[in-house]
Amino acid sequence: MNYSNVPSICPYCGCGCSFFLQVLDGELVGILPNKSQEISKGQLCIKGWHANDFITHKERLAKPLVRKNGELVESTWDEALSIIASKLKEHAPDSVATLSSAKVSNEENYLMQKFTRLVLRTNNVDHCARLCHASTVVGLNKSFGSGAMTNSIPELENCKCMFVIGSNTTEQHPMIAHYMMMAKEKGAKLILADPRSIPWSHFSDIHMRQRPGTDVALLNGMMNVIISEGIEDKKFIEERTEDYDALKEMVGKYPPDQVEKITGIPKEQIIEAARMYAKSEVAAIFYSMGITQHTTGVDNVVSCANLAMITGNIGKVGAGVNALRGQNNVQGSCDCGALPNVYSGYQAVTDEANRKKFEDAWHTTGLPANPGLTVTEILGSAAKGGIKALYIMGENPMVSDPDIKHVKESLEKLDFLAVQDIFLTETARLAHVVLPAVTFAEKDGTYTTTDRRVQLARKAIEPIGESKPDWEIISLLAKKMGSNEFNYGSPADIMDEMARITPIYGGISYDRLKVNGLQWPCPTKEHPGTPILHKEKFSRGKGKFWAIEFKEPAELPDAEYPFILTTGRTIFHYHTGTMSRRVDILNKEVPTGYLEINPADAARLGISEGSKVVVSTRRGEIEIDAKVTERVKEGVVFVPFHFAECAANMLTNTAIDPQAKIPEFKACACKVVKANSGSCCQ
Ligand code: SF4
Q: Are 475 and 490 in contact (CB under 8 A)?
């Protein structure tokens, strides 16, 4: 018998817990937590414990598929790649786009953007970070000069005050919640701002339940209290920041009684929360998609940064603005340049010196200089016949993107769609060619946690069937299209190339990645990595205050659509469910979607626990089971978005933040009707 423990990283969330894949005679037999890693310390959440269950699932794609006579049929790699190469070549660069993936490795994201820019000659490359934390990348960059979580996961137990706004941390980032709970046990205060009652509600000192979409008003109101009571950090403001006067003047317009009218939060709570946060010796902000997924997503992020800076809570242990990134490698896919406006390391494509650097590295000239299209723009353009060919790696817009009816119409309008994935997803079913990729367990690769930690996962088993690693597939396709720039012996070679031209990853190589990885910026081979950003100075020099006025969400309730619909996740599933819905124990916990509705609203509509209801918006409708619960306030309903058969994103709004282009998943107007009752909810 041949047994080994292969070091790996959990493929679900951005906490990046480490474990060993247990391999017996070439077969995966289990998961063993890693006690040496400083994040997980031998612990995992339920998803991590079962992260091996979907790898050998019987529905894994094992051969390339090609559409013939309307059906997807098994094919050869040569035929499938030849079709993709010829179809991508058929169209002008501006008519072609790619979607990279927050689930695949850094090396694969780097290669996808290189392929798009070098071979396809367009910057039309993006991925689902657009749908979760694009506002963070833009907003924190505007305020601090770096669009990433400022502090590190293990130090969070040193917080003295935690302000959680728009993050259901215990369900979405269980290991981070574990550290926050340790801080709470040591006496830290917990302030929660969330429209729903979530597990944190039971532990919070203050729970402010704002009307969805009113976060800027709440944050301005807290700053109003802090400044008017003189408890701001004057020294930090003076020495480390700029443009404070404009902020001070603007927040003067948001006294607590005014903010109560906008947000629905009693003014006493706003005042108490402001004092608690500002008077703490060390205070940290934690936010996630409740802040970012709005048409005011960037405004929300910048307002969080404003609050942290007026209290001097940046650049020190246990403080900071902690943007909790969702998927296992959404941080890395952004870092590696799978974005339409930047190369790896956030180097702008519009900068001539950057283009020259990448042209030299890739032995070419004339790389495209204009930023490409975002995910939402790619699909919008496809609907109008602009984008004609799309190559998708490991993304499932048929469940993840807003207004799925429109997504389907856009994908069906394409002349050509290729999808590369591990299962035949809802999106892959629409493709002309489907390429079978491998999971994290069948390849080497690095993944970057939400706290900027680059970690190495090793290959444990051979690929299932004829599936191949994404980096190999991209390289084969590039060669098929005539490029000589994709000759890599292993993912380590790709990392070496990226490190040479990406300053924040400059000192990272496979031989340096031990159990706790390295946190970027890590510019040289001698650099130990950077656990805390903006310590002595901000990445942009001085921290910049932005005076941000409150704006309402794009769609408000009215007589026809009287409820506010908000969406989110559960602890038992991840994203579009491609992996987690193929794990028995997770499916037993939550087999399908549901609508949370307040008991008062339910009684008025004759809805009881388990009733079938129809939820509709201006985009579409779904039929779904009702859960009658105080978790939502009257007038607000909640649907988790993992479930294709009752997809929340049939309902959501495509209205986007003008700067980050992120859609407003967190607030739109809807109506609820008991199924077959014919009576509306008004
Ligand atoms: Fe995986 Fe996140 Fe759970 Fe850790 S907390 S085991 S990374 S899903």
A: no
